[in-house]
């Protein structure tokens, strides 16, 4: 951990960006818990909660190809500040959702919030090399991943407490304030550090962006092993996406604490954060950084994810739920981190952004499908909560088996993998 602390100490510009990330992530979990609680209180329907996650995922899927173009065309620092402030205004508008007939407004505002998020994320990722030396990029990205998981654990717990004891309106106000504070931290970075490779204005910007996306897809189509690597997260999210929906009735109906499911949900999200945050760190210390180790880590990730989901299907108490959720989180973290490292190593630099854009689009698409299935299965197909968890576990078993076969083939024939 010394290298992470040292980077924060000697680089004030990166420290400001990191603090903005910390505050913003904290607010994100306040928002999710408050939104889920509001929907549960106004509708009580699993499908309604599925629509919440769809409203969060689909804007990311639709906007991600064009958000990169915006990040290259405009000043990235100003984009981050503007989108943070716009998200603050959007989240404050959630206060108008106060009765069941206005629930549609929550979905519209959530979609708008994540349109802004879709623009913010590539701008932030592209901005990072302008404030961090090349030799510190790996450390900075690792710290960013650990920060997300830590804020998931802390933010979910604090968000659960705030929503349970202060109410959803207060949670929304706190979320809006976090975006304002995050914008303030970004504004403290000197203007000279914007470092954006902004391109000239022109009507062909979107068209050129589409052509570049097609070029990246053609590259992946010609490299089937790399295409599989780019689809690893999508395969995992086809399983874990629906769990996001099921965790809410699991907390609200099956294992509430003193009649309050919001606090239980906060603990569940905290368990996810612990698993996703520390799983990759432990696996890296155990396995190392070799190509074979990365493949092994992903294999362990799929197994842990599936075991954790089956554990949720038979959980008799909240403690069991938290343990199974941690195991599931470890699997999710391993799949997420080590598949990204494989792509960073093997994809040529000039195509890396487009490949990651494709990866993210595929991820959000499968996550949306899994989320919708979970809500419909629980609400309309007569399946119990345990049975829907089992269906997710069976899907995880099938995908894990497919990855085992692929892993064995690539391990025996490493020449199948393209070199960077």
Distance between the termini: 29 Å
Order of helices and strands: HHHHHHHHHHHHHHH
Q: What is the CATH architecture term of the largest domain?
A: Up-down Bundle
Biggest sheet architecture:
none
Q: Write down the CATH class of the largest domain.
A: Mainly Alpha
How many DSSP-defined strands?
Answer: 0
CATH topology of the largest domain: Growth Hormone, Chain: A
* Fourth-level CATH superfamily of the largest domain: MFS general substrate transporter like domains
Number of helices: 15
Q: Beta-sheet strand percentage?
A: under 5%
> How many domains make up the 3D coordinates?
2
Which shape, going by the Cα principal axes?
globular
Are there runs of 5+ residues with pLDDT below 50, and where? 193-204
Radius of gyration: 21 Å
Mean pLDDT: 79
What is the helix content?
Answer: over 70%
Notes on the protein architecture:
With 420 residues, the chain is an all-alpha fold. The protein folds into two domains: 1-188, MFS general substrate transporter like domains (Growth Hormone, Chain: A), CATH 1.20.1250; 208-413, MFS general substrate transporter like domains (Growth Hormone, Chain: A). Helix content is 84%, strand content 0%. It contains 15 helices and no strands. It has helices at residues 2-10, 12-42, 46-73, 76-92, 103-131, 137-166, 168-187, 205-222, 224-230, 232-254, 261-287, 291-313, 318-346, 349-380, 385-412. Helix 1 crosses helix 2 (12-42) and helix 3 (46-73) packs across helix 10. The two termini are 29 Å apart. The model is unreliable at 193-204 (pLDDT under 50).
């Amino acid at each position: 951990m010394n290298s992470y602390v040292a980077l924060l100490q000697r680089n004030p510009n990166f420290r400001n960006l990191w603090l903005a990330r910390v505050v913003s992530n904290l607010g994100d979990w306040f928002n999710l818990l408050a939104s889920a609680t509001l929907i549960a209180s106004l509708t009580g329907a699993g499908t309604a909660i599925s629509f919440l996650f769809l409203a969060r995922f689909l804007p990311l899927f639709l906007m991600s190809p064009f958000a990169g173009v915006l990040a290259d065309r405009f000043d990235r620092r100003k984009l981050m500040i503007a989108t943070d402030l716009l998200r603050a205004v959007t989240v404050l508008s959630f206060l108008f959702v106060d009765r069941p007939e206005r629930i549609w407004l929550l979905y519209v505002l959530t979609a708008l919030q994540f349109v802004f998020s879709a623009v913010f994320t590539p701008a932030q990722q592209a901005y990072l090399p302008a404030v961090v030396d090349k030799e510190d990029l790996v450390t900075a990205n690792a710290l960013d991943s650990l920060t997300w998981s830590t804020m998931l654990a802390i933010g979910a717990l604090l968000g659960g407490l705030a929503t349970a004891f202060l109410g959803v309106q207060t949670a929304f106000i706190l979320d809006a304030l976090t975006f304002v504070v995050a914008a303030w931290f970004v504004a403290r970075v000197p203007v000279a550090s914007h470092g954006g490779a902004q391109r000239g204005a022109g009507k062909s910007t979107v068209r050129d962006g589409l052509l570049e996306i097609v070029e990246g897809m053609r590259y992946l189509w010609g490299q089937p092993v790399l295409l599989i690597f780019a689809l690893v997260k999508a395969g995992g999210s086809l399983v874990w996406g629906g769990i996001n929906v099921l965790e809410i009735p699991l907390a609200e109906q099956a294992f509430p604490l003193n009649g309050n499911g919001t606090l239980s949900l906060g603990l569940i999200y905290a368990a996810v954060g612990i698993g996703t945050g520390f799983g990759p760190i432990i696996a890296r210390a155990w396995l190392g950084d070799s190509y074979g180790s990365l493949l092994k880590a992903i294999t362990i990730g799929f197994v842990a994810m599936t075991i954790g989901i089956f554990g949720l299907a038979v959980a008799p108490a909240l403690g069991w739920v938290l343990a199974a959720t941690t195991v599931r989180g470890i699997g999710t973290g391993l799949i997420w981190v080590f598949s990204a490292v494989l792509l960073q190593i093997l994809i040529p630099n000039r195509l890396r952004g487009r490949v990651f854009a494709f990866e993210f689009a595929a991820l959000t698409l499968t996550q949306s499908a899994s989320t919708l299935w979970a809500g419909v299965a629980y609400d309309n197909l007569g399946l119990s909560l345990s049975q829907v968890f089992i269906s997710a576990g069976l899907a995880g078993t099938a995908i894990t088996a497919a990855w085992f076969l692929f892993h064995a083939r690539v391990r025996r024939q490493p020449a199948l993998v393209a070199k960077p």
